[in-house]
């Protein structure tokens, strides 16, 4: 077979022709493929970058949601406290004041009367609510302080000199039976005192309440001489209120003033 090379890029094989491959075309093709590969790699890098940014956004969103959730729970608790204060304020005009409900016992007859009243559930509830408005609720661990503060509502300090827990009086080392009034016999009254403390501190037991009463009886002379302007209290340091508690208190006081003004207007119109 004769091969004839013609001019240009054609080769003749016995009058058949073949065209030589253009090297530049292959180079162009490889260059194009390389460019596509580089572009794919760049796009992949960009996608990974976007994915990382999305993950970061999700993390920030989760942290923000958790923070907002915590703030919402805090606001809920503040609203609950405010609602409790407002509800208490709303019934202030309806519930009798503590001075209308109870007078400190100054004689045995007064004790007998309080003992009988302590059996009346309605009276008991009204007295507990009246004391709660003064001394508050949710004072866990402060039961002794509250008990010392309210003891004068029930017993006149001078009259407590005539009382003891068992009724005995000890003079010159001698026991004198039935020389004093035995407060231990007034079980219903003791229970009423405990109920008034328990509304402020639900962990406070009746035995602890009895211990405070017995301590007051033991120190009755000293308590009588004490400056009555100073409020009796157990020696417990109180925590300073937080800014949130102060804010809630300010809102509650503002609402209370509005309520009192509204009630005053209604009374004036009637």
Key features of this structure:
single chain, two-stranded parallel sheet, rod-shaped, disordered N terminus, mainly alpha, 3-stranded antiparallel β-sheet, 270 residues, 9 helices
Note down, in words, how this protein is organized.
The structure is a single chain. By secondary structure, the protein is mostly helical. The chain has 9 helices and 7 strands. The chain has helices spanning 23-90, 98-101, 108-117, 121-135, 143-154, 187-198, 206-218, 220-225, 243-269; strands spanning 3-5, 10-13, 16-19, 163-164, 169-171, 174-176, 181-182. The protein has a 3-stranded antiparallel β-sheet, with no helix packed on it. A two-stranded parallel ribbon has the order 4-7. A two-stranded antiparallel ribbon has the order 5-6. A hairpin with a 2-residue loop joins strand 2 and strand 3 (16-19). Helix 5 (143-154) crosses helix 7 (206-218). The longest helix has 68 residues, at 23-90.
């Amino acid at each position: 077979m004769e091969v004839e090379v013609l001019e240009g890029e054609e080769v003749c094989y016995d009058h058949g022709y073949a065209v030589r491959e253009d090297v530049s075309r292959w180079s162009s093709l490889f260059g194009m493929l390389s460019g596509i590969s580089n572009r794919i790699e760049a796009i992949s890098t960009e996608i990974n970058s976007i994915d990382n940014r999305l993950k970061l956004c999700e993390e920030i969103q989760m942290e923000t949601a958790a923070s907002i959730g915590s703030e919402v729970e805090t606001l809920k608790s503040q609203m609950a406290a405010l609602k409790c204060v407002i509800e208490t304020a709303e019934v202030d005009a309806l519930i009798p004041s503590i001075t209308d409900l109870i007078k400190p016992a100054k004689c045995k007859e007064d004790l007998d009367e309080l003992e009988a009243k302590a059996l009346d559930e309605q009276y008991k509830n009204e007295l507990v609510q009246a004391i709660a408005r003064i001394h508050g609720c949710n004072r866990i661990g402060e039961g002794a302080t509250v008990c010392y503060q309210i003891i004068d509502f029930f017993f006149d300090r001078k009259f407590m000199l005539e009382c003891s827990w068992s009724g005995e009086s000890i003079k010159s080392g001698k026991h004198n039976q039935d020389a004093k009034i035995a407060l231990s016999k007034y079980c219903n009254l003791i229970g009423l005192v405990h109920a008034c403390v328990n509304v402020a501190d639900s962990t406070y037991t009746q035995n602890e309440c009895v211990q405070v009463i017995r301590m007051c009886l033991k120190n009755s002379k000293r308590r009588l001489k004490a400056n009555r302007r100073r409020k009796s209290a157990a020696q417990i340091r109180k925590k300073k209120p937080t800014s949130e508690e102060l804010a809630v208190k300010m809102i509650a006081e503002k609402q209370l003033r509005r309520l009192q003004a509204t009630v005053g207007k209604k009374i004036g119109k009637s």
